[in-house]
């Protein structure tokens, strides 16, 4: 039994929804379907969820919202007409929107209810379309599915106990189509997850029904081993572990909403990233454990810019018990989360995302460090890029670090930082942002291009 | 004007003291002389300070101490007779010992006073011997020299204000011979520094008199670029910066007492390590800043065994603000000082000296981590060796890390950890202790052996 989740691009228009129909029809194991709201039809298009948010904000601010409403209804009309579905759905959607707008509730709750209309309508459309294909499909509301969440509008958390309720979905016949992105509080109030939360619904349903496979349909054939904007036609990844996925997504790979994976990871359910536009492509499997071939110890190379390094040096620092903790404590007190804090003997570097430390915050932090820790030197250096070389085979493979470092040296890249060994599945390099593309190409060639 | 400090091996017997006399005579700039107690004359000999401590403990425990006293006086007798000095010195030393033993004071203070006799007698012997060479030499007691310290027996700290007093030593004529290792409290009570504290005295005197050079006479021609027990006839280091010295001494190089250097570092006084047995050898200069030649970016390779790695892994660790601080806080609360704490995305490794975490402490710490931080995994791995590659030229030299890593790969050494970039003058590698000698030889060859 599989759970298949379709993202926004898979539901952007009738053509896409027809593909979704074929995909569901082609495999009777696809019993639980989770859908996003209609996404962009083309580069400059607006997502349904954004149209809904604009309408909601206009309404709440007493501005005219009818233009937005018309745009929304036009998109639904286009989809429903092209799919030859009943106009009654349109009437249902418009009634639903107006009911929500007029309901007596807090602004936060109303906005949540408005946002959820995209996914909810998607599920109803897909369900109706599957029925028109003579599939025994049923729309299931998240309340009926058992998705019980905390009362945190826009950031709901699944409550313990939900999974057992969700498991009872097995008792229902046919294909069940469930809208992503929202659940209901114990008091029965609709509440949404954080943005991108359809992945959360998919993951919860997969964990709840104990699926054999959680299929995540997107618009790419697979996860690539490196950013295709830097390296042309990179190798597709066929299998990854959860840990590898997580390390890759940290530094630029954005296939998944990280938190979303927690339920499937706990249940060790394999995930498959597949392409709605090319369902025959094998996709990328993400699993709990995998076999590692000796010559394929690296799975992928991720990279991200926008880091800075806070450098603190003090003679005999390492004799001063608690120095590192005090330094990190200052950052925490100033609300600055840090990424890594490698230390030398009398030196410590703290890697921080530049967006997390404004120039004014920088001045405050440097002042506090000077006054509270009396260092010999403290400085902050911006414009750093991070490269993550990720692979389950990294640990215990002799020479794997050598390959990356030789590649960086060959590309004449100065290595500002190497952090290897703290993670079992990755090595991290810090370089100047301006060197990044050159560095990535060289490392990619070293691991992936046969010579 | 130079301060010359002579270590125990330079004062072990009359032959050595004669060399010291020649060294002082050969350079009129050597005005301030700091001496240790007589050291070992041969491998199995006992240092004078240890004889004194044994005697003191016997006395304090009501045991017979006369055998020790005889051994002590025999050594002094041998030295004084061979140097043809007056027997009055012997009478003075024996009287001093008896006075100290019989004095009304706490055990800690008495032990300090007993320990200090080694250095004090050394200074008197050297002063008398220099006079016999017709040098205008004077013994100066630390009280008269202005070495005023805190009242912490066995761990005295120099008090602010001492340096100004010490500067007035310039007003005295001739060569001044000052015993190392102890000072006096503001109440006039003799108190010793921590063991090896003659280096502290030398450094304080050098800083106080604002010496042009602080000469530290030992029994080696220079600091070597690598442990001579691992690599035969290694390259001698001619110049090092304070920072390089510190990083090297962290991992096995034991030329200096780290704290001892603080006063000279603050005053930016150059240090020269020289050999009493071969004073014509240039020695190793240790300076504040130095020029770096492009092909000599590495100064030395230090190594040390006896480390372990505490590994903690938790999905989404890096989203959890304060996780690292909490982990280090547990170690601090358990009194465990750590060396480094490199972190990955969802992983953190803490490098700890094995002697600092007993198996029972390990169990407590792992339990607390499990209960307080709920990690996915926590484990401790012993038997790790650390290699430090040290050099002022490391920063901004492309390919320098490559050389070390290529050497480790060539030697088939698995690299457990790389920490580069947190220090500007060192790279740190973690490997299995069993691989250490092989690893060191290979890295040494890569940087120091012309091919």
Automatic annotation (TrEMBL), chains A, B:
It catalyses: L-aspartate + ATP = 4-phospho-L-aspartate + ADP. Its EC number is 2.7.2.4. Pathway: Amino-acid biosynthesis; L-threonine biosynthesis; L-threonine from L-aspartate: step 1/5; Amino-acid biosynthesis; L-lysine biosynthesis via DAP pathway; (S)-tetrahydrodipicolinate from L-aspartate: step 1/4; Amino-acid biosynthesis; L-methionine biosynthesis via de novo pathway; L-homoserine from L-aspartate: step 1/3. ATP binds at residues 5-8, 218-219, 224. Substrate binds at residues 49, 119. Residues 389-451 form the ACT domain. GO terms for biological process: diaminopimelate biosynthetic process; homoserine biosynthetic process; lysine biosynthetic process via diaminopimelate; threonine biosynthetic process. Keywords: Amino-acid biosynthesis, ATP-binding, Diaminopimelate biosynthesis, Kinase, Lysine biosynthesis, Nucleotide-binding, Transferase. It holds the Pfam family ACT_9. One of its GO terms (cellular component) is cytosol. The keyword Nucleotide-binding applies. It comes from the Bacteria. Belongs to the aspartokinase family. This is Aspartokinase. It comes from Oceanobacillus arenosus. The lineage of its organism: Bacteria, Bacillati, Bacillota, Bacilli, Bacillales.
């Amino acid at each position: 039994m599989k759970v298949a989740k379709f993202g926004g691009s898979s539901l952007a228009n009738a053509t896409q929804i027809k593909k979704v129909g074929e995909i569901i029809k082609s495999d009777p194991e696809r019993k639980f379907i989770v859908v996003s709201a209609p996404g962009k039809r083309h580069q400059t298009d607006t997502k349904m969820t954004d149209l809904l948010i604009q309408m909601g904000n206009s309404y709440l601010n007493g501005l005219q919202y009818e233009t937005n409403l018309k745009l929304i209804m036009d998109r639904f009309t286009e989809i429903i007409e092209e799919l030859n579905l009943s106009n009654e759905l349109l009437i249902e959607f418009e009634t639903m929107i107006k009911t929500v707008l007029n309901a007596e509730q807090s602004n936060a709750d109303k906005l949540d209810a408005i946002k959820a209309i995209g996914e909810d309508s998607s599920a109803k459309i897909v369900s109706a379309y599957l029925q028109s294909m003579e599939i025994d499909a049923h729309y299931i509301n998240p309340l009926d599915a058992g998705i019980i969440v905390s009362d945190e509008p826009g950031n709901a958390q699944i409550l313990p106990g939900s999974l057992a309720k969700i498991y009872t979905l097995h008792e229902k016949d046919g294909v069940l189509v469930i809208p992503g992105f929202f659940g209901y509080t114990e008091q029965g109030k609709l509440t949404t997850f954080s943005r991108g939360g359809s992945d959360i619904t998919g993951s919860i349903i997969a964990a709840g029904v104990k699926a054999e496979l959680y299929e995540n349909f997107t618009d790419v054939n697979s996860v690539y081993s490196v950013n295709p904007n830097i390296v042309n036609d990179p190798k597709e990844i066929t299998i990854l572990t959860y840990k590898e996925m997580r390390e890759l997504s940290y530094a630029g790979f954005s296939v998944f909403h990280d938190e979303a994976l927690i339920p499937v990871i706990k249940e060790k359910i394999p995930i498959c990233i597949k392409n709605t536009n090319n369902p025959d492509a094998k996709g990328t499997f993400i699993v709990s454990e995998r076999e590692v071939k000796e010559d394929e110890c690296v799975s992928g190379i991720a990279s991200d810019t926008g880091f800075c390094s806070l450098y603190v040096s003090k003679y005999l620092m390492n004799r001063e018990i608690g120095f590192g903790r005090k330094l990190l404590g200052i950052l925490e007190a100033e609300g600055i989360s840090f990424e890594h804090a490698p230390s030398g003997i009398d030196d410590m570097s703290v890697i921080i995302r530049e967006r997390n430390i404004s120039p004014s915050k920088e001045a405050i932090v440097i002042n506090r460090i000077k006054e509270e820790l009396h260092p010999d030197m403290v400085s902050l250096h911006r414009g750093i890029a991070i490269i993550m070389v990720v692979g389950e085979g990294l640990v215990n493979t002799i020479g794997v670090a050598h390959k990356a470092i030789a590649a960086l040296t060959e590309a004449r890249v100065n290595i500002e930082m190497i952090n290897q060994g703290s993670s079992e599945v990755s090595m991290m390099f810090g370089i100047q942002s301006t060197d990044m593309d050159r560095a990535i190409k060289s490392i990619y060639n070293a691991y992936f291009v046969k010579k």
